[in-house]
Write a structure and sequence with these properties.
The strands form 2 sheets. A 3-stranded antiparallel beta sheet has the order 1-3-2, sandwiched between helices. The protein has a two-stranded antiparallel ribbon with strand order 4-5. Helices cover 45% and strands 11% of the residues. The chain folds into 2 domains: 152 residues, Gyrase A, domain 2, CATH 3.30.1360.30; 72 residues, no CATH class. By secondary structure, the chain is mainly alpha-helical. The relative contact order is 0.09.
Length: 261
């Protein structure tokens, strides 16, 4: 860890990480001095190797990027701090280094990804999918193949626990067979088959509750014979009937008009 070197740094990114109990690690890249910040073919829009490594790290971790020796001193990192880093990493003049800061797990993973990407430069242009960013392109993910089918290699792993799985299970949508049986018990199989494939099935579920409420109220008033409320209740229930019928003129089983309360 290089936190001791940067305890008084003016680099806001490293300073913030240290203040939040995070780490700053570095790794030496032997004989790569001058290569991380250069354009190999001299093309103005050609991406630099340092940027490529950074993009790999950002894609594979939660880190926002890295620092490399070819762009330093800069970003508040002083010449004295660079000398101390070189000393600790045992870098000679021809060696480069990269710095990563963040939580320990992500930094260690990022260092591994960075080293692997550097090794790829010795084997030529890697096979990868890239996206256009104006006149340039940047790394997205490896080319499709057996190595990235299952699991997806360019998507960070999501850890779950039993509590999360149970929460998901409770919020799963209703199976279509179960929905068909439920609809069939209310409107018959023919209309149920149409409803389960219809966009209005959600609305139907809401107004099915109104239908049940109407039938329940009808039963209650018939049993208890609240004659003094007869006119008002009939008006309310018939209003519900009309409202429901407007939405389900073709798909909803006709409800009986209220006239016997």
């Amino acid at each position: 860890a290089l936190c001791e070197i940067f305890k008084n740094t003016q680099c806001t990114i490293i300073k913030s990480a240290i203040e939040n109990q995070k780490v700053c690690y570095g790794v030496k890249l032997k004989n790569f001095s001058g290569l991380l910040g250069s354009k190999f073919c001299g093309i103005s829009k050609e991406p630099r190797l340092g940027k490529e490594i950074s993009q790999y790290v950002k894609t594979g971790t939660k880190l926002r990027g890295l620092f490399h020796s070819d762009e330093l001193p800069n970003y508040g990192i002083s010449e004295d701090e660079i000398k101390e880093v070189r000393k600790i990493l045992s870098c000679c003049e021809s060696d480069a280094f990269i710095l990563l800061t963040g939580n320990t797990e992500d930094v260690l993973k990022g260092m591994k990804i960075a080293v692997e990407r550097v090794k790829m430069t010795l084997s030529g242009v890697p096979e990868e999918t890239r996206k256009a960013t104006g006149e340039e392109t940047e790394y997205m993910r490896p080319l499709p193949g057996a190595s990235r089918m299952y699991p997806e290699t360019d998507v960070a792993m999501i850890e779950t626990d039993a509590k999360f799985i149970e929460k998901v299970r409770k919020n799963l949508p209703e199976l279509i067979d179960s929905k068909f049986e439920r609809y069939a018990s209310m409107v018959g199989k023919e209309l149920a088959n149409q409803l389960i494939h219809s966009k209005i099935s959600v609305i139907f579920d809401k107004f099915a509750v109104l239908r049940m409420l109407k039938m329940w109220l009808m039963g209650c008033f018939k049993i208890f014979k609240f004659k003094h409320l007869r006119h008002k209740i009939r008006h309310i229930l018939n209003g519900i009937h009309t409202f429901v019928k407007r939405y389900f003129r073709k798909n909803f089983k006709p409800l009986p008009r209220v006239s016997h309360i």
